[in-house]
Amino acid sequence: MNAWMEEMGASQETDTLLQSIFANISDAVLVVDHSGTIVTVNAAMERMSGWSKEELVGSKHICEICLGMATCQEESTCTDCFFKRTQMPSFEMRVRTKDGREYPVAASSTRLPEGADGKMVMILRDMTMQLRAEKERYQHKLTNFVIQAQEEERKRISRELHDGVGQALYSILVGLNVLGQGKLSGPMKQHVTEIQQMTAKAMEEVKRMALELRPSALDDLGLLPALRSLIKRVEKSFGLSVDLHVQGEWQRYSAPVETALYRIVQEAMTNTAKYAQAHTLGIIFEAREKELVVTIVDDGVGFDVELAENKGSGLGLFGMKERAQLLKGSVDIRSVIGEGTTVIVRIPVAKGEAEDGHSSLDRG
Ligand SMILES: Nc1ncnc2c1ncn2[C@@H]1O[C@H](COP(=O)(O)OP(=O)(O)OP(=O)(O)O)[C@@H](O)[C@H]1O
Ligand SMILES: [Mg+2]
């Protein structure tokens, strides 16, 4: 075999390899001519766009597929179009598919050298999954931030109420007691007694509000004592009988875990009190080796969970799930109309979590 034949064989091999790459690569590849008309596409481009090769080649202009590109300066623009450039190594583009959907893609474009009649080759990579994951990560971060900020703010207002307004009312009450013991006329004494009662009531109200905002017991004594006190208040206010069971060795857990569980149980209890018309509510805490499981069961009217979640009229169910998911846990809500509702919360805990995890919110 002479050198010319060897060269021919090698170049045929390279052509076959290039054709195979073009046909099998997962990125969409398309070539457009100097006027912008598509002259060839690979199979990935057909899959991405929904149009067949026959529908694209020779009849579609690049502007019928491109819905605009994003640059560092602008989110969607045609002014700095890649088509006017010789080369654009990386930009974002939105592709319009045959069924009218929009695809975000990472693109690159290169005008082919002399002899190719100004043809341009473009490579498009589907970014839907990456963008969705990025959006979810961002939303998670944002929710975490909002929840933490809300807890800190509740804690601050709760302290202000307790130590500020609460103390001031107490001082007024002490003053009124002194006044009441002095020599006063009958009507005046009656008047002072009434103001004493009103002040005592206002003090109770402030105490209740401070407790509801964020019970100091949650930070000082932990989840179970804080919940026991919440349960007493719910039983008194709503005439509901609540049974609390603890299985396993329940200890103090990290502040984010205790806060999340407190808020989730609080929301489930409030929902039961508000909507379930239940007689009893059972709360079971299970400290397992690798997770904490809390089950909240009511014997009320039940509801259509899917419908309530899709309707999105309230934030409670959504908030419960968000709080658990932020700690890599879950909330499962099962409800049967006429039979009641069960909420199962699972939060994973690492070994030693109880000992060293507590206090990040305490210190805050
Ligand atoms: N234990 C329950 N028994 C019966 N219905 C319930 C129960 N828990 C929730 N629901 C129903 O699900 C709906 C959604 O609950 P969710 O907690 O998300 O919102 P909400 O309580 O109405 O408002 P928010 O919690 O934001 O104050 C409620 O409106 C109620 O109809
Ligand atoms: Mg609710």
Automatic annotation (TrEMBL):
InterPro entries, sorted: HATPase_C_sf (IPR036890), HATPase_dom (IPR003594), His_kinase_dom (IPR005467), PAS (IPR000014), PAS-like_dom_sf (IPR035965), Sensor_HK_TwoCompSys (IPR050482), Sig_transdc_His_kin-like_C (IPR004358), Sig_transdc_His_kin_sub3_dim/P (IPR011712)
This protein's record includes keyword Membrane: no
SUPFAM superfamilies (alphabetical): ATPase domain of HSP90 chaperone/DNA topoisomerase II/histidine kinase, PYP-like sensor domain (PAS domain)
Gene3D superfamilies reported for this sequence: 1.20.5.1930, Histidine kinase-like ATPase, C-terminal domain, PAS domain
Span of domain PAS: 14-65
Subcellular location: Cytoplasm
PANTHER family: NITRATE/NITRITE SENSOR PROTEIN NARX-RELATED, NITRATE_NITRITE SENSOR PROTEIN NARQ
Function: Member of the two-component regulatory system NreB/NreC involved in the control of dissimilatory nitrate/nitrite reduction in response to oxygen. NreB functions as a direct oxygen sensor histidine kinase which is autophosphorylated, in the absence of oxygen, probably at the conserved histidine residue, and transfers its phosphate group probably to a conserved aspartate residue of NreC. NreB/NreC activates the expression of the nitrate (narGHJI) and nitrite (nir) reductase operons, as well as the putative nitrate transporter gene narT.
Protein name: Sensor histidine kinase
Source organism: Brevibacillus ruminantium
